[in-house]
Every structure is written in structure tokens, then in C-alpha cells.
TrEMBL record:
Name of the featured protein: At1g61320/AtMIF1 LRR domain-containing protein
InterPro entries: At1g61320/At1g61330-like (IPR053772), LRR_At1g61320_AtMIF1 (IPR055357)
Stored PANTHER family: F-BOX DOMAIN-CONTAINING PROTEIN, OS02G0105600 PROTEIN
Domain of life of the source: Eukaryota
Listed Pfam families: LRR_At1g61320_AtMIF1
Residue ranges annotated for the At1g61320/AtMIF1 LRR domain, each copy included: 7-259
Length: 264
């Protein structure tokens, strides 16, 4: 167990803490004004002690979604922005009775070579349910994670969770969108049940940034031809299974490969 203590006047000034690759079992932080924390080792039990202003949390390791659901509501109840980098998820997002009562921004990166091919993206609705004030949700899926089975079935086979309403969710972006069945179900669920939704962005390319279109500016990051072809297929899937769910109050941004940087 490690307890972060020190000269009281110095702890009062501490605002940001980053913990990298530690071997601790328990980490207790007693810095009352710390508001941002980054952890890169989930084999640790967190306790923020007197740190009641923790509003920005960044987690980076495998099984990050499950770890966050199981541990953070109790140890960081006032977090407002949560960013999760997960290299692998063993199970789908579990249902929880705990609440992130102040969470407004949730950003999830599913990365790595060992991502679970059959991950149920619709299970992420449990995080929406646990975050009644959630306003913005961003999901980034890496190219390897996008090795999926195409959904080309009857719309009646898609699952619905109409009893789950998300009254404050306004802005959603899914980068690396692909027509895996559960990802299609997640997008449709958001359109059907996020009653305050203003904008849904579906980026069919797994890129972290785009060029500005200026010939002198930096280009989009390189993509293999197979990913470019899949992106065009994903656009067709959005128009077939999702576009019809968009009502007049919601702006749908459907992004495909950049015509300036990518040519088949």
C-alpha cells in the first residue's frame, strides 16, 4: 500500500498526478485539491481520501471499461470527464447499480492487437445508464478491433433497449465505425433513446485526425487499401440501417475516406 502524503502546503497545491507502470496494490491519495489523475496500471486499488475535487480521470490499460464500472463510482464519485484507453476487454460492459452522478464526458479508445472481435458495443449502454448527466460520448475503435462479421440481415433481428432513456446525451462520435451488428445496434439505440441528441458523427475511418483540405497542410495518416474499401462499405451500411432513424432535430455527420489523401 502506498499513501501519497507530504508537506501539507505542497499537497494543497497539487492539481495533476500521473502514475505509470507501478506495482502497488493500493494507492491512497490525500491531496485535497487534485482535479486530474492519470493511471496506467489497473492492478491497483484506488482511494482518493481527502481528494474530493477529482473531476478528470484518465485510465490506460487492458479491461479499462470493466475496471471503471467496478471501481470508480465509489472512489471518484465527482468525476466529470472520464477517458479510457483499453487494449483488451475480456467481457462486455457489465450492468451496474452504481452511478457516475456527475459524469458529463465519456471518451473510450479500444486499441491494441488483442481486441475482442465479438465485443458487444450495445453493452456500453450500461455506462449511459450509470451516467444520468452524460452529455458527450466518444468511441474510437482501432483498425484491428474492426475485424468483424458484416451485418447484412433483417432489421427485425436487431436488438432494442427502448426502456433505457438518456435525457442529457447531446453529442456522440464513433470513429472507426463498422457495420458489426452490435455497433449498428448501438448507433440506432442512441438515435432512438437519446432524447436531447443534437449531433451524431460516424467516422468510417479509424484515423485520429484529418487534414484540413489545404494542399500545404499535413495529410491524413496512412491507411491500408483494405481499410479504405471497408470504409466505403461502412458508409453504405449507415445509409441502409441507420440514416432512416435520424430525425429532423439531429445532425448526422457521416465521414468517409478523405478524397485528397486516399485514392483507390
Amino acid at each position: 500500500m502506498c499513501i501519497l502524503r507530504g508537506i501539507p502546503c505542497l499537497l494543497q497545491r497539487l492539481r495533476f498526478l500521473e502514475v505509470l507502470e507501478c506495482s502497488l496494490e493500493v494507492l491512497e491519495i490525500n491531496a485535497p485539491n487534485i482535479s486530474r489523475f492519470r493511471l496506467m496500471d489497473f492492478n491497483v486499488q484506488l482511494s482518493f481520501g481527502k481528494s474530493r475535487k477529482m473531476k478528470n480521470l484518465m485510465l490506460n490499460n487492458s479491461c479499462g471499461i470493466s475496471y471503471a464500472i467496478d471501481n470508480l463510482p465509489s472512489c471518484a464519485p465527482k468525476v466529470e470527464t472520464l477517458t479510457i484507453h483499453s487494449s483488451y476487454e475480456i467481457i462486455n460492459a457489465p450492468v451496474t447499480s452504481s452511478k457516475f452522478r456527475h459524469l458529463k464526458i465519456l471518451i473510450i479508445y479500444l486499441l491494441g492487437l488483442h481486441s475482442h472481435r465479438d465485443y458487444d458495443y450495445l453493452s456500453l449502454v450500461s455506462l449511459f445508464d450509470a451516467s444520468p448527466l452524460l452529455e458527450r460520448f466518444v468511441l474510437f475503435v482501432s483498425p484491428v478491433q474492426s475485424k468483424y462479421d458484416w451485418f447484412e440481415g433483417d432489421l427485425s433481428s436487431l436488438r432494442q433497449m427502448s426502456e433505457h432513456r438518456h435525457h442529457n446525451l447531446k453529442n456522440v462520435k464513433i470513429s472507426g465505425f463498422c457495420p458489426q451488428k452490435s455497433m449498428v445496434e448501438l448507433a440506432r439505440h442512441i438515435l432512438e433513446n437519446a432524447t436531447s441528441l443534437e449531433c451524431l458523427t460516424l467516422d468510417t475511418t479509424p484515423t485520429s485526425y484529418r487534414c484540413s483540405g489545404d494542399i500545404l497542410a499535413r495529410k491524413c495518416p496512412p491507411l491500408e487499401t483494405a481499410y479504405i474499401r471497408d470504409a466505403y462499405k461502412s458508409i453504405l451500411a449507415v445509409r441502409t440501417y441507420i440514416e432512416g432513424k435520424v430525425n429532423s432535430t439531429v445532425k448526422l455527420n457521416l465521414l468517409g475516406p478523405c478524397s485528397r489523401c486516399y485514392a483507390l
